[in-house]
Amino acid sequence: DCATGEIRVRANIRNASERLAASQLRFSVAPAASGETLATVALDRPIPTGDTLVETRLKVDRPHLWNLDDPYLYRVTIRVTVSRSNTCDEFSTRCGFRDFRFVDGAFRLNGRRVFLKCSHSGNMFPGGRKLPLDPDLLRRDLLNSKATGFNMIRFFCAVANRRQLDYCDEIGLLVYQETAAGWQWHDSPQMAERFDTSIRGMILRDRNHPSVVL
Fold it and tell me: pTM value?
């Protein structure tokens, strides 16, 4: 939330053992580039067998906004330790503060009007491959779009590769993303369920990327 500096965190903790675990959860946020910790929240929580959803909030004072020319990223980390154990588990993800909306007939990024110049990608690589033989083609494809004056890339017919979205976050390239659910499906009794599953899966997987705006 750009206005408040709040980061709302939802973490799924999976206890694979057969007994209740007395756990300590530590959430923290830091600039992705420097690693200096800006805020932490510590929780003591018993975690039963199976999945437990834990929600909390972190606060960043005067957040540095992500934009096309200054794609500033933060890293949110959760560390889980269990009582009477010498081990821990840690997971982190990157995110960014930005506001993207359509107001008075124009798109606006962080309050400033932006004219969208969008290229598109079928997300295929030489030889008709979804994953290129040279992984660097994922990065170069997006850098070339940015270098030739585009500020947005549309991935159509399928969601982007996760690494591609990481690159878009890093170089300041907006993303217009679709799922395969929107293309060339024949009607069936399972249509609505399959469509909703596809859309929901895309949103849950990619909601932390500041580059994804459509």
Answer: 0.90
Reported as type and span, the H/E element at residue 206 is helix 191-206
Is the pLDDT at 8 greater than 80, yes or no?
Answer: yes
Could you say which DSSP state residue 173 is in?
Answer: -
Tell me whether residue 174 is exposed, middle or buried, using C-beta atoms within 10 angstroms of its C-beta: 0 to 12, 13 to 18, 19 or more: buried
Average pLDDT, the chain: 92
Instruction: Flag the least confident range among 51-65, 102-116, 135-149.
Output: 135-149
Residue entry with tokens 């206890």: 15
DSSP string of 8-68, one letter each residue: EEEEEEEE-SSS-EEEEEEEEEEETTT----EEEEEEEEE-SEEEEEEEEEE-SSPPBP-S
> Distance between CA 195 and CA 200 in Å, rounded?
9
How many angstroms separate the CA atoms of 28 and 18, rounded?
29
**How far, in Å, are 5, 83, 106 from residue 97 at the CA level?**
8, 35, 20
